[in-house]
Design goal:
Layout lengths: L1 H10 L6 E8 L8 E11 L10 H13 L8 E14 L16 E14 L2 E12 L5 H12 L14 E18 L4 E14 L2 E14 L29 E17 H8 L9 E13 L2 E8 L5 H7 L1 E9 L2
Antiparallel strand pairs: 1-2, 1-12, 2-3, 3-4, 4-5, 5-6, 6-7, 7-8, 8-9, 9-10, 10-11, 11-12
């Protein structure tokens, strides 16, 4: 984990524009199981200009051109790197033995490399992810550290986490600013739609979502519910045009995920675990954002799951801070 983090730092150009950090936890929904928490640390490049050298963005663009998967005509280009940790646990953290009627312990560490092509009313994201599942992910260490900070006992069953696997994923997201309306005194309303696809050896699925937001002096960035892995940085696009002293927005969205393959479920079943497999997963998103010229603070809730038990287990909250360098 430490080597991967240092490797990612070595890739960042010195004139990087945006840094971000996000912390997830399900404590707000009074649970500590299934998706119990995680963390994301990200970087977003400047908007690419062919007259300015930016080897990372140009390399991602050249790869997409070589694979013939993208249309660059008339579109702005940005690229991002995001380091993401996901922690999944059963409900009873005191048990030392496997709990075969619940989910197993799982830690997932992923480095997400994304290319964004965008216009004022639309963006596309092409993403490739590599990482680790299992003991090398650092999930146990991160959860133990978080529990120590808040004074809770550590989880006792990490020795039973599912087997190690190298993570390889590819993803695509397209988002559209479907409607926008400006009012007097800087108020505005926007409606976004999006769809997404993930293919890989850990998770394969697809879905769609819709989001609305209302606020004051909002930047012309994007907001959307994202895929199930939920690590997109599209909300950081076009932030450099924001020059207001402050602003805010309220966001609300829904999404539906169709799950085709889950390594978590298949490996757990092979080991004798029995729990419900969710094929169709509805999700919600409620949030508030505060903007200054260089900083953005987001507080979001993600209600998650089709039944009462899955809702309590999978729903989580997120606090995110984005810092824009000038």
């Amino acid at each position: 984990m430490r080597f991967l983090f240092l490797f990612l730092l070595s890739l960042l150009p010195l004139y990087s524009q945006i840094f971000s950090v996000a912390i997830d936890n399900d404590y707000v929904f009074h649970s500590d199981d299934h998706y119990t928490g995680g963390m994301q640390v990200g970087w977003m490049s400047d908007t690419y200009d062919y007259n300015i050298s930016n080897w990372y963005v140009s390399s991602m663009s050249n790869m997409a051109s070589l694979l013939k998967i993208a249309d660059f005509d008339g579109k702005h280009q940005n690229a991002s790197i995001n380091l993401q940790e996901i922690i999944i646990t059963p409900k009873n953290l005191a048990a030392h033995k496997p709990l075969y009627n619940d989910v197993p312990y799982v830690g997932i560490l992923a480095a997400n490399f994304s290319l964004f092509l965008w216009e004022t009313s639309m963006f596309e994201e092409y993403k490739f992810s590599i990482g680790a599942v299992g003991s090398h992910s650092g999930g146990q260490q991160l959860q133990d550290a978080a529990h120590k900070i808040v004074g809770n006992s550590g989880a006792n069953g990490w020795d039973n986490q599912i087997g190690d696997r190298v993570l390889l994923q590819a993803g695509y997201i397209k988002g559209i600013r479907q409607f926008e309306k400006s009012f007097t005194d800087g108020m505005g309303f926007e409606w976004f739609n999006n769809y997404f696809l993930d293919i890989g050896n850990i998770y394969t699925g697809a879905g769609f979502g819709s989001t609305v937001r209302y606020g004051y002096n909002m930047p012309k960035n994007f907001t959307q519910t994202g895929s199930l892995l939920n690590s997109s940085q599209n909300d950081q696009l076009n932030l450099d045009t924001y020059d207001k002293n402050w602003g805010w927005s309220l966001n609300a969205g829904v999404a539906v995920d169709g799950v085709g393959y889950s390594y978590l479920y298949d490996e757990a079943k092979r080991r004798g675990y029995e729990f419900d497999r969710l094929r169709i997963i509805p999700r919600g998103q409620l949030g508030i954002d505060f903007y200054t010229r260089d900083l953005r603070l987001s507080v979001e809730l993600f209600p998650f799951g089709p039944t009462k038990s899955s809702f309590e287990s999978n729903s989580f909250g997120r606090i995110a801070l984005t810092w824009q360098m000038n």
